[in-house]
Specification:
- The radius of gyration is 20 Å and the shape is globular.
- The mean pLDDT is about 90.
- The protein is built from eight helices and seven strands.
- About 45% of the residues lie in helices and about 25% in strands.
- Strands 2-3-1-4-5-7-6 form a seven-stranded mixed β-sheet.
- The termini are far apart.
- Strand 4 (about 140-150), helix 7 (about 160-175) and strand 5 form a beta-alpha-beta unit.
């Protein structure tokens, strides 16, 4: 509930004006303002926006080095190459949502098995690209994190919540080039798969368990 005391400065509380800055959609701002004002319950908000999704977060390794050595156009071409290689895989595996920004890609799936299949295939095709074009060795390698659970279908990635945060941490900050890391929720859901193996990893900067995945 909002405090009864108003600050001595204006607040932007028009949901349409707030949405123009590309944070959330207008209706999300409207409903959050309604919660703040006691006109909507958190449970009602959950019923409207909370969904179960598998989240794949992909980052490129070597991007910064390419920018420093080759300049911005070289890095743009590196991103282009990644988009040309990765997006067809995500489409083939029927991702429900794909968003690219800078050297990252976020894709949503209905279940984690398909997200994992997409990650493994992306690594295969990226390796083929590097082997076929040996005269241009700067093809970036993909670092991928996958989470699975309830997330709020809001924001630019249409996924906000703990598993989105974990997938982002794994894909953007932790995974090495060519590596796929998954959360505990993903491992539990896919524990019966016999074509892959999960190996628990350690990282002192992370407070949650996570696993690397390779084909068996």
């Amino acid at each position: 509930m909002r405090s009864k005391h108003s600050p001595p400065f204006p607040l932007l509380e028009d949901p349409i004006e707030l949405a123009r800055h590309h944070g959330w959609r207008g209706e999300v701002y409207r409903d959050l303002l309604a919660i703040e004002q006691g006109e909507m319950t958190p449970q009602e908000f959950d019923a409207r926006y909370l969904f179960e999704r598998a989240i794949l977060v992909l980052d490129l390794t070597g991007f910064t080095e390419t920018t420093i050595k080759g300049g911005p156009i070289a890095s743009f071409l590196q991103i282009l190459d990644a988009h040309k290689t990765c997006i067809p895989v995500l489409r083939e595996l029927q991702a429900s949502y794909i968003r690219t920004f800078a050297d990252d890609i976020v894709a949503l799936f209905s279940e984690p098995g398909t997200a994992l299949d997409a990650a493994l295939e992306i690594h295969v095709r990226s390796q083929v690209r590097r082997e076929l074009e040996i005269d241009t060795p700067d093809h970036a390698r993909c670092c991928i994190g996958i989470g699975f659970g309830n997330v709020y279908e809001i924001g630019p990635n249409r996924a906000m919540g703990d598993e989105m945060n974990r997938a982002s941490k794994l894909g953007e900050d932790t995974a090495r080039g060519g590596e796929t890391l998954v959360t505990e929720a993903v491992r539990k859901h896919l524990h019966s798969r016999t074509d892959v193996r999960f190996e628990e990893q350690k990282n002192d900067s992370l407070i949650f368990p996570f696993y690397s995945v390779e084909r068996d």
